[in-house]
């Protein structure tokens, strides 16, 4: 079975990009298990996030760098880490929010999203992911507010 996208071949269930992300996650878990002290682990995980951001295409890289700075300033207790090869920010080892570059899954736009660990519940329906084509100062302020709330 083939996908409608030219660059993506489908197997029975997962695209090539999805399988690559799962392999990245397995490598992340193996690397994490080998680290020694908590401080060493935190420093290595942040360095891995910064390195992953540096690999991104220009427009995604610029957004990811800004989001990294906004998240660190808004919720310094969230720990940067790689999650399926994406920059993510965790509390007590559980991912709260993440940045997915457009190139990750050959998407039209980058995504900033929240997992169920995020404290964003509001009524019976609330957004958990946002499409990003660029970041304005207002967008950064909104992300900062959401991250503070999510980490709380």
Which features would summarize this protein structure in a list?
152 residues, alpha+beta, 5-stranded antiparallel beta sheet, 4 helices, 5 strands, 18% strand, globular
Please report the total strand number as a whole number: 5
Question: What is the first-to-last residue Cα distance?
Answer: 44 Å
- Helix run count: 4
Query: So what's the overall shape?
Result: globular
What topology, given as strand order, has the largest sheet? 1-2-3-4-5
Major β-sheet annotation: 5 strands, antiparallel
Helix content estimate: 40-55%
SSE order: HHHEEEEEH
Radius of gyration: 16 Å
Q: How much beta, percentage-wise?
A: 15-25%
Instruction: Name the quaternary structure.
Output: single chain
Low-confidence stretches: none
The average pLDDT is: 90
Query: Which structural class should the secondary elements be placed in?
Result: alpha+beta
Walk me through the structure.
With 152 residues, this protein is of the alpha+beta class. Helices cover 45% and strands 18% of the residues. Strands 1-2-3-4-5 form a five-stranded antiparallel beta sheet. It starts with 15 loop residues before the first helix and ends with a helix.
What's this entry about, in short?
The protein is α+β, with helices and mostly antiparallel strands.
Helix and strand topology:
Elements: H1 16-34, H2 38-55, H3 58-74, E1 79-83, E2 86-91, E3 94-100, E4 110-114, E5 129-132, H4 137-151
Antiparallel strand pairs: 1-2, 2-3, 3-4, 4-5
């Amino acid at each position: 079975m083939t996908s409608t996208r030219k660059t993506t071949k489908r197997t029975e269930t997962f695209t090539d990009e999805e399988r690559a992300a799962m392999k990245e996650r397995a490598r992340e878990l193996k690397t994490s298990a080998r680290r020694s002290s908590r401080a060493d682990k935190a420093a290595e995980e942040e360095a891995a996030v910064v390195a992953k951001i540096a690999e991104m295409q220009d427009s995604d890289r610029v957004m990811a760098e800004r989001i990294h700075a906004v998240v660190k300033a808004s919720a310094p207790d969230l720990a940067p880490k790689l999650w399926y090869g994406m920059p993510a920010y965790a509390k007590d080892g559980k991912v709260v929010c993440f940045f997915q570059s457009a190139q990750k899954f050959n998407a039209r736009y980058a995504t900033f999203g929240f997992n169920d660990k995020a404290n964003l519940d509001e009524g019976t329906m609330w957004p958990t992911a946002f499409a990003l084509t660029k970041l304005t100062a207002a967008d950064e302020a909104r992300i900062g507010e959401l991250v503070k709330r999510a980490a709380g």
